[in-house]
TrEMBL record:
Organism superkingdom: Bacteria
Pfam (any one): SLT
Span list, region Disordered: 25-48
Domain spans labelled Transglycosylase SLT: 63-166
Lineage start: Bacteria, Pseudomonadati, Pseudomonadota, Gammaproteobacteria, Pseudomonadales
Gene3D superfamilies assigned: 1.10.530.10
InterPro entries the UniProt entry points to: Lysozyme-like_dom_sf, Transglycosylase_SLT_dom_1
Listed SUPFAM superfamilies: Lysozyme-like (SSF53955)
Listed name of the protein: Lytic transglycosylase domain-containing protein
Amino acid sequence: MTGYRIPGPTCATRSGAIDSGTLCRSLSPAPGPVGSQGSGEGIDRTSPADRARLQEIRRLVTANNRSTLDNDLIICQIYMESRFDAMAKAPGSSAKGLMQMTLAAVKQVYQTRKEKELKHKIRDKAEFEACMAEGKAMHSSALIFDEATNIQLGTEYMQYCVDSAGSVEDGYKQYRGLRNGVYYAKISLAATRLRARPDSMQPLYDTLK
């Protein structure tokens, strides 16, 4: 045996041909008004509270991004997944928190951490089961809703997906469980628009519907 592997999907949900993010996201429309449709340009109609929350999320991502992925891309992913709601939960899924971390994804993070520590795949059954128990305990605890912790776990999981798939785009396909690339296309476009207007929520409202 070369090592253990967690079975089943590890993203929040597997959607249909039009990939809109998690079920939680699809049930939660954007909280603010929409400006220039699809352009990310024009008048900023977002509220001071919305802009303050964006800057709070930006600070959190800057401090806790444990991946090689661009901070703006992670910010857009968080908005796509949870609308910046730290307590978000997806009905019918184990997805929790800002980055909608599922039980399987958290377990994978703990497995990856252990294998980095060992510098090889986990080969011992008891060691693997202990690792899975740690991941389950984290996912079951209130700490999963801590914003910094959730971002650390989410970005570590995204790095695992990118490393496994070989590219950022394919990493997001692995994350979503879909090969159409729609999810990455959406958040990548939003990230490009956000870089041009880093203090405005309007690019997110216009792009990630």
